[in-house]
Design goal:
Elements: E1 3-13, E2 18-23, H1 30-33, E3 36-40, E4 47-57, E5 60-65, H2 71-75, E6 81-85, H3 99-102, E7 106-109, E8 114-123, E9 130-135, E10 139-144, E11 150-154, E12 159-162, E13 173-174
Parallel strand pairs: 7-12
Antiparallel strand pairs: 1-2, 1-6, 2-5, 3-4, 3-6, 4-5, 7-8, 8-9, 9-10, 10-13, 11-12
Length: about 180
């Protein structure tokens, strides 16, 4: 079964074995709905740990795992990825998608440009998501993921339909 990375253990906190997670999703409360997590990236391979307690420090998630009872044990988990299985993914509202499901979709402009390319990545550290599209000739096209440009996502056909303004793609950069 595929593992899905949802966080990273970035630090320990206190002396009772708690770890601090950097959460990759926009729904930090998901940790309260889970019973266990897969911790990967260590020399000993993946380990599954049961969640004993969850609390928050701003946007950071603080977790106490069963069997991790002191700072030294918690330190061994630092810099490791936190994963779940597909069975633990939550149901998303209509017209909402997991990024991993969008990557690889064909991107088509329903106006002048026609087929643009394949969605290769999504940049999430700006005011809105930015779709990075691998276009012909090794170019990359950056499309803001806003309703003005993204008209429809057809998950079944794996096509993202856009409506771009004239001249939009002319500024595409070489990869």
């Amino acid at each position: 079964m595929e593992k899905i990375k949802i966080a990273k253990i970035v630090n320990v906190t206190g002396i009772k074995g708690e770890v601090k997670l950097y959460n990759y999703s926009d729904y930090k409360e998901r940790f309260e709905e889970l019973n266990e997590l897969i911790i990967s990236g260590g020399r000993d391979g993946d380990i599954t740990l049961k969640i004993e307690k969850v609390r928050y420090q701003g946007e950071m998630v603080i977790i106490k795992f069963e069997g991790v009872n002191d700072r030294n044990q918690a330190e061994k988990l630092r810099d490791r990825d936190v994963c779940i299985t597909e069975d633990d993914l939550r149901e998303l509202p209509e017209d909402t998608y997991y990024l991993r499901d969008l990557i690889g979709m064909k991107v088509v402009d329903d106006g002048a440009y026609g087929e643009i390319g394949i969605l290769k990545d999504v940049i999430q550290n700006s005011a809105q998501d930015i779709y990075v599209v691998s276009a012909s000739g090794g170019r990359e096209v950056l499309i803001p993921a806003v309703k003005d440009f993204i008209r429809e996502i057809d998950a079944e056909a794996r096509v993202i339909h856009t409506t771009l303004i004239p001249g939009f793609i002319d500024g595409a950069v070489e990869a």
